[in-house]
TrEMBL record:
Annotated source species: Tieghemostelium lacteum
UniProt record similarity statement: Belongs to the aldehyde dehydrogenase family.
Record-annotated membrane-spanning stretches: 30-48
Name listed for the protein in its UniProt record: Aldehyde dehydrogenase
Occurrences of domain Aldehyde dehydrogenase (ranges): 73-532
A Pfam family per the record: Aldedh
Keywords: Membrane, Oxidoreductase, Transmembrane, Transmembrane helix
Signal peptide residue numbers: none
GO terms assigned for molecular function: oxidoreductase activity, acting on the aldehyde or oxo group of donors, NAD or NADP as acceptor
Superkingdom as given in the UniProt entry: Eukaryota
Active site residues according to the UniProt entry: 309
């Protein structure tokens, strides 16, 4: 904190020196000098004075032990998927223990909900500092848990998390700010507004592909909106919870907040179901469509609202008017980021027929030149997959697709050099057709399927030819064509001339349609999704508005006629029709003035 203060002081002094020199150089122009001086004062005030807030001083609390770390259920053997070595045992939480976690979270949230946005921003900044100060430990925990490379862990766990937190600091309050709403002419003495209140406790169930980022991304948004967060992590990436849970609790406790505000729950399906049924106020589930449907059914028993992000079969469209080398770099990331274990992986690559052969040849050459191996043993382009069962599924899909007529261009097998780990070689399948199994089923692994297309109509039909609708990428020099095609594809997110960059734009909501789920996280919509919307109508002036006799009981027979003419006067089409209704309305009011009193 001292370093930050000293840095701000240096910038402050440098700013004043710059302003001083600038004023001397322009001293002959008094008006110009005055305007520049005023501008400089405003900038300095905003940066160094106006931004200072009087935050309440809270006594530090004990970090303690999370209720989520006291499980007595089935043991989880945390195995490094790249080496096959055990990292230790963590016990699942039983349903009764999940309930206990919720009770402690509710207690923490009862205090937290009254905190100001300044205090919440302070915690978000502390989380950023936590990532920076513990970057190496967090990266290596993710590597051991998932088998991903150091690059993928640094990019996918650290960078994306810091950007999420930065967004909340800069723009979170704006998203939850009270909004004025329009009041109709008939209620001119009233004012309307919409407020966003905390829901209470948010249950979050995340997958194993980004075990650190998925926790903080959802939990930070939940607590910024004033809630508590209970995050159930996957049994396939549980070990990193030990480190991360301690870091989060330390941040909260050091600022005087209850560290049980965020809890990380280990467990299998029983624990996840218990969380859904526990009485939390909302569920965010990220996972497969099959499990998502079960979550939705369980949540319906308590009418618990859900946000579902259920994966995809995203198309990447490559037109013939682009630079092939540039497109290859984008497509490689789209297909093989995190070894394809990504909900927005480009699992179907549509390549225009005029460049298909060259593109397939160059793509194959590049992928075959890359290295794969255990991340802890050296520098590799690709690590291992995380789930043993997922390796089996990917291999079955690849072999089935080859039998159906696809051409194997690269990979297509477990890596022979690392039999103890979950290594599947980056695979390219050419000449894939819509009728093939892999065209429809999500692989969630290192498989690039190349599909040839010729016409725009054919392309759109094939791109829409699955039950999924999460994301879509289009690579072309013709932006109008990209917009035209994108508007006809059923997707929740469209990226033109890039891949995955929209996730770093945290102001954009993340989510899909069809069997890719519904609801959104990230962006203002994500924060509001963790809030209870309260519509408020009140008096515009500090006087009591009288209730006109027109709408009082018993109803006067003449009330109907006046209301009918008011309807015609306000809503009917045509200027003369409105005039006619206005005259009739005025006439009836003159005959029955007491009805408006």
């Amino acid at each position: 904190m001292t370093e930050i203060t000293e840095s701000c002081g240096c910038v402050y002094r440098d700013s004043l020196q710059f302003v001083k020199k600038f004023l001397i150089a322009n001293s002959n122009d008094f008006i110009f000098q005055s305007l520049i001086g005023l501008l400089a004062f405003i900038i300095v005030y905003k940066l160094f004075i106006g931004g200072r807030k009087n935050l309440p001083k809270r006594a530090k609390r004990s970090v303690g032990v999370s209720p989520a770390s006291k499980g007595t259920g089935q043991p989880i053997d945390c195995v490094n998927p790249a080496t096959g070595k055990s990292m230790g045992i963590i016990n699942c939480l039983k349903p009764v223990e999940v309930k206990q976690c919720l009770e402690s979270a509710k207690l923490a949230q009862s205090e937290w909900k009254s905190t100001s946005f300044d205090e919440r921003r302070q915690i978000m900044q502390d989380f950023i500092d936590m990532f920076i100060n513990n970057e190496k430990a967090i990266v290596e925990a993710s590597m051991r848990d998932t088998g991903k490379t150091r690059f993928e862990a640094t990019f996918g766990e650290i960078l994306t998390s810091c950007e999420k937190l930065r967004y909340l600091i800069k723009h979170g309050e704006k998203a939850l700010k009270t909004e004025k709403r329009i009041v109709p002419m008939l209620l001119g003495t009233k004012s309307a507004r919409l407020e966003y209140h905390p829901l209470g406790s948010i249950g979050i169930i995340i997958p194993w592909n980004y075990p650190i980022h998925s926790i903080i991304s959802a939990a930070a948004a939940a607590i910024f909106a004033g809630n508590a967060a209970l995050v159930k992590v996957s049994e396939w990436s549980t070990h990193s919870k030990v480190l991360f849970e301690g870091l989060i609790r330390e941040v909260l406790a050091n600022r005087g907040h209850d560290p049980n505000l965020i809890q990380i729950l280990p467990g299998m399906g029983e624990t996840g179901e218990a969380l859904v049924r526990s009485g939390v106020d909302k569920i965010l589930f990220i996972g497969s469509p099959q499990t998502g449907k079960r979550v939705m059914k369980a949540a319906s028993d308590n009418l618990t609202p859900v946000i579902l992000e259920l994966g995809g079969k995203d198309p990447m469209i490559v037109y013939d008017d682009i630079d092939i080398d540039w497109a290859l770099a984008v497509v490689q990331r789209g297909c093989f980021i995190n070894l394809g274990q990504n909900c927005i992986s480009s699992e179907r690559v549509f390549v225009h027929e005029r460049i298909y052969d060259k593109f397939a040849q160059e793509m194959t050459k590049k992928i075959k030149s890359l290295k794969q191996g255990p991340p802890e043993e050296g520098h590799f382009d690709f690590g291992s997959m995380t789930m043993p069962a997922q390796v089996d599924k990917v291999d079955q899909l690849v072999q089935q697709t080859i039998k159906e007529g696809a051409k194997l261009l690269a990979g297509g097998m477990r890596h022979p050099s690392y039999p103890k780990g979950n290594f599947y070689m980056p695979t390219i399948l050419g000449d894939v057709k819509p009728g093939m199994t892999i065209f429809q089923e999500e692989a969630f692994g290192p498989v690039c399927t190349l599909v040839k297309f010729s016409s725009e109509a054919e392309l759109i039909e094939m791109a829409n030819g699955t039950v999924f609708g999460l994301g879509c990428s289009i690579l072309t020099s013709d932006l109008k064509r990209a917009e035209r095609i994108g508007s006809q594809i059923s997707t929740g997110m469209l990226t033109i001339n890039d891949y995955g960059a929209s996730y770093l734009v945290q102001d954009l909501p993340f989510g899909g349609c069809k069997e890719s789920g519904f609801g959104r996280f990230n962006g203002p919509e994500g924060l509001r999704g963790f809030s209870r919307e309260v519509s408020i109508l009140t008096d515009k002036f500090p006087i009591r508005t009288p209730v006109p006799r027109l709408i009082r009981y018993p109803i006067d027979p003449n009330s109907v006629g006046i209301i009918r003419q008011a309807i015609f006067m306000i809503y009917q089409r045509g200027f003369f029709n409105k005039i006619r209704a206005a005259c009739s309305f005025t006439s009836q009011v003159i005959r029955n003035p007491k009805l408006l009193l």
